[in-house]
Amino acid sequence: xxxxxxxxxxxxxxxxxxxxxxxxxxxxxxxxxxxxxxxxxxxxxxxxxxxxxxxxxxxxxxxxxx
Length: 66
Fold this sequence. Notes:
alpha+beta
């Protein structure tokens, strides 16, 4: 690989990297909205909007189960 292709690869990789609450970096591809952190086991979301949607859906499911 050349320097130009290496920098493009690493720039793309850092664009999709999100920090977990445990300060571990997780790479989330475009096809996924969330992934489990390998270090602590908690979900890491792509952005705050996606996190809100998942948490709201979980709470709605808990209310509907009653």
